[in-house]
Each structure stands twice: as structure tokens, then as C-alpha cells.
């Protein structure tokens, strides 16, 4: 589902892009890597919670990076409501995204 969202252009990754998406109100779901730094987690939990965006801690930076076609990625945001709901359902069921 994450790869599909990326192909549709509904995923942004990286610190600046995700922060901008949260501030513009475009982010519908934020994914944080489990091995992201404590500072990154704290920053994006604060930004997301203050804007009412759900946050899920999932996968490693390398896994998120593979989805974004990068070596690593600590944070990404889904910018489409339908994709975010679908991804949340997959994660609740324990699917790997």
C-alpha cells in the first residue's frame, strides 16, 4: 500500500518535506521509523499532535528509505486521506505495509 501511495505521488519523505506537509495541512498520516533518533521522534510527535495528524511508528529507516527510493528515511507522510486510512488498516492487522 505504501509503494502504491508513493507511485501515486501521495507520499513525501524527509524532514523538510514532512514538516512542510504538516504545516500546510496536507499530511494525513505520519510514519516514523522505529530507529529514528529520539530528537526526530520528539519533533515530529510534537508537530503532528499539534496539527491533529496521526503518527505511527513503523519499520526501520532502511525500510522507509526503500519505499522512498533512498538509502534511509526516518520520517514520511501520506498526503491522501484514502491511502492513509488504508495504510492504518493494514498496520492494525499487522500487515507489513
Short account of what is shown:
The chain has 97 residues and is an alpha+beta fold. It has 5 helices and 4 strands.
Termini separation: 6 Å
Q: List the uncertain runs.
A: none
Give the C-alpha Rg: 12 Å
Number of strands: 4
Q: Can you write the helix and strand succession as a string?
A: HEHEHEHEH
Q: Shape, please?
A: globular
| Strands ordered across the widest β-sheet | 1-4-2-3
Give the DSSP E fraction (strand runs of 2 or more residues). Answer: 5-15%
Describe the structure.
The structure is a single chain. It contains 5 helices and 4 strands, in the order H-E-H-E-H-E-H-E-H. With 97 residues, it is α+β, with helices and mostly antiparallel strands. The protein has a 4-stranded mixed beta sheet, with helices on both faces. Strand 2, helix 3 and strand 3 form a beta-alpha-beta unit. It is globular, with a radius of gyration of 12 Å. The protein starts with a helix and ends with a helix.
